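Query structure, 721 tokens:
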């Protein structure tokens, strides 16, 4: 038998039996039977065996499966010691889906894809050895974190570590264009190059002049942002890693850009084929002023980016619209047009109902709490990366006359349930930070110099979390309850504290900080004010008990950390971000990100195979009441959870809202006496609520339609961790 010739296997049938109740009960034992059958019928017969560990590594190196350099950084006796330790942990997958996803997507296979060359333990070892970079203690620590699934590297990192033929370890990129043809051309080239490397690409087009705007020295007018969007979509379709995956990108535009209506219209199902965007994602940049104009039911003015840049001496995206709005309106030198703010709000909601887009970036919220000198102007393909940028300019030879600063994202995630069981929470987080630091230190995206410059200067990483709903259910806490909010805040406070401490230690060891540290709120100490004036420790007995074996930082601890950071600095400009998670959460046998589950028994449609069923982690008669579907939940509870975490997260979080086309009675008070159908008003209210609660970004709006379909459920394979 080989992977190309699997016959008479029983595991798919066994897995499908989970969906057939027996005496009114979910037969969860069938999932365990499917898992055992999968290992016996699929994995064991097709796993290449070796006489010794040395023979295995020699084979992998000689046949160009593994890089030799990272192996040679260790004495082989240590590698054997590492494997002995991993073997003693007796790792076993807990569900059929976990094992199936790992072996289908992550395990190294022979070049003919006919046999496996890795188990989960082998992949853990490769990650630990590779990211520890020769440091034996770090390799042991990292192996311990990953084998016990307290830490999960992002998909590009976990998949590619140690491989000879691989993509980059970076998850995604953020670039921007300024208002001239040279930079637009360079932006398209950068999108091609970054999509080829792998990962999603976010592009800000806010600085481009609008359709119909005059072009200096040329009789004619600009074409606006939509044709550039079409060029970018075609670029991503073309640059797809030799057909291995669809290139993925998102374009962002300010709601105060004159092309905003055309920008949104390009994603509509009934848009003309000349402008319709089929695969490119859309996001809108929303300043506070927009919410104010909506609240007051006022007109809003859209401003010519060319004129604004000429008047203010900087690109449109870098002008504070909320602060300057009245001045922009009064300035007769700036061309503008007028629309109703609520009409635009409705257009955004209509498109979100139809497609799940656009993402929403509350840009003033992000900048108001940004501790770094500079300005955040956009986000990435999954809306969780929020870092400062500076613009570039390009000359006629396509060389940078001004090299700005753009962004690459290095992601990883904690598994909440497993990290809460760690013997040393702080040491675990430090190990994770050091693994992520390896990626930023060794990333060298020279094909896009602005990305290279940003990474070299900022050393930014993004440590997040997955499995909140499963942890809450296991501990009998209702999602969105006061106790769940208290736990979420305390958990992310701990992540913040220990990642700051780790970054400070690395800065001290290397005598190096991120560029611009001295101008940050970390350097002057003001970042720490809220931790010195407010106590984020658990207050209720229920939540405090969960942290019995985990030291919670006191105000004195925060004061000590403040002094250490002011003295020796931080190595990382940014440290935390919560990605949406995807297949990797199945491998971790946990729920995705901080979201509630969709179904107690999730149904996944796998290409060429059919349906696979995945029971929620820790699902039992005991936890069943705590597993309510996101589609049957008040989305204000989800927003409240994310707001509790956002308080401590320096970047953003991929917050998805889940809606039904027909909304069950009793969820939203404002629906009483009105239609039970989802309307634009529902989304308007929720977006305004999220803004009020301090949410920096909203990712997809996922809608479950009356004909049992999902709208807005695509995911970026790189950023989903």
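Result returned for the query:
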């Amino acid at each position: 038998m080989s992977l190309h010739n699997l016959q008479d296997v029983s595991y798919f049938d066994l897995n499908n039996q989970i969906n057939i109740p027996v005496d009114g009960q979910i037969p969860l034992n069938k999932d365990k039977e499917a898992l055992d059958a999968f290992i016996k019928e699929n994995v064991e017969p097709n796993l290449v065996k070796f006489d010794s560990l040395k023979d295995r590594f020699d084979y992998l190196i000689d046949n160009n499966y593994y890089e030799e350099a990272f192996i040679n950084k260790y004495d082989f006796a240590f590698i054997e010691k590492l494997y002995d330790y991993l073997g003693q942990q007796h790792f076993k997958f807990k569900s059929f889906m976990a094992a199936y996803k790992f072996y289908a997507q992550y395990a190294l296979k022979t070049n003919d894809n006919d046999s496996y060359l890795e188990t989960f333990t082998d992949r853990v070892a490769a990650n630990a050895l590779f990211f520890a970079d020769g440091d034996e203690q770090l390799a042991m620590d990292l192996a311990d974190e990953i084998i016990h699934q307290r830490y999960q590297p992002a998909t590009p990192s976990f998949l590619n570590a140690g491989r000879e033929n691989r993509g980059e370890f970076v998850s995604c990129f953020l670039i921007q264009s300024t208002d001239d043809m040279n930079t637009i051309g360079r932006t398209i080239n950068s999108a091609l190059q970054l999509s080829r490397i792998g990962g999603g690409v976010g592009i800000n087009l806010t600085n481009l002049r609008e359709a119909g705007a005059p072009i200096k020295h040329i009789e004619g007018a600009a074409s606006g942002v939509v044709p550039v969007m079409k060029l970018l979509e075609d670029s991503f379709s073309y640059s797809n890693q030799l057909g291995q995956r669809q290139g993925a990108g998102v374009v962002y535009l300010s709601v105060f850009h004159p092309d905003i209506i055309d920008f949104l219209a390009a994603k509509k199902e009934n848009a003309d084929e000349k402008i319709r965007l089929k695969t490119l994602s859309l996001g809108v940049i929303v300043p506070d002023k927009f919410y104010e104009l909506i609240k007051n039911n006022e007109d809003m003015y859209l401003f010519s980016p060319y004129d604004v840049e000429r008047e203010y001496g900087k690109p449109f995206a870098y002008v504070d619209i909320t602060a300057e709005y009245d001045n922009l309106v009064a300035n007769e030198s700036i061309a503008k047009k007028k629309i109703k703010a609520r009409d635009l709000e409705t257009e955004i909601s209509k498109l979100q109902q139809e497609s799940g887009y656009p993402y929403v970036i509350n840009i003033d919220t992000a900048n108001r709490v940004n501790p770094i000198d500079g300005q955040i102007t956009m986000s990435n393909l999954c809306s969780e990366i929020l870092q400062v940028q500076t613009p570039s300019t390009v000359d006629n030879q396509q060389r940078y006359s001004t090299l700005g600063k753009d962004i690459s994202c290095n992601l990883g995630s904690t598994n909440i349930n497993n990290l809460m069981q760690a013997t040393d929470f702080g040491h675990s987080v430090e190990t994770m930070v050091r693994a992520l630091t390896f990626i930023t230190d060794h990333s060298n995206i020279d094909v896009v110099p602005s990305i290279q410059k940003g990474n070299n200067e900022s050393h930014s990483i993004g440590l997040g979390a997955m499995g909140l709903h499963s942890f809450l259910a296991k501990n009998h806490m209702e999602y969105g309850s006061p106790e769940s909010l208290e736990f979420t805040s305390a958990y992310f406070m701990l992540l913040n504290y220990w990642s700051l401490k780790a970054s400070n230690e690395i800065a001290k060891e290397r005598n190096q900080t991120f560029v611009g540290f001295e101008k940050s709120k970390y350097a002057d100490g003001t970042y720490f004010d809220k931790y010195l004036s407010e106590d984020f420790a658990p207050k209720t007995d229920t939540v405090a008990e969960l942290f019995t074996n985990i030291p919670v930082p006191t105000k004195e601890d925060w004061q000590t950390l403040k002094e250490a950071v002011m003295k020796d600095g931080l190595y990382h400009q940014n440290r935390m971000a919560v990605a949406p998670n995807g297949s990797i959460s199945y491998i971790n046998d946990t729920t995705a990100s901080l979201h509630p589950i969709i179904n107690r028994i999730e149904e996944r449609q796998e290409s060429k195979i059919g349906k696979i069923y995945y029971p929620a982690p820790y699902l039992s008669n005991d936890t069943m009441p705590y597993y309510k579907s996101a589609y049957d939940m008040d989305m204000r509870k989800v927003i409240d959870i994310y707001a509790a975490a956002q308080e401590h997260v320096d970047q953003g979080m991929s917050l998805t809202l889940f809606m039904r086309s027909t909304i069950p009675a009793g969820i939203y008070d404002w629906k009483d006496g009105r239609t039970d159908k989802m309307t634009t008003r529902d989304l308007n209210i929720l977006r305004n609520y999220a803004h009020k609660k301090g949410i920096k970004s909203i990712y997809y709006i996922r809608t479950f339609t009356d004909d049992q379909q999902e709208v807005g459920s695509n995911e970026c394979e790189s950023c989903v961790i």
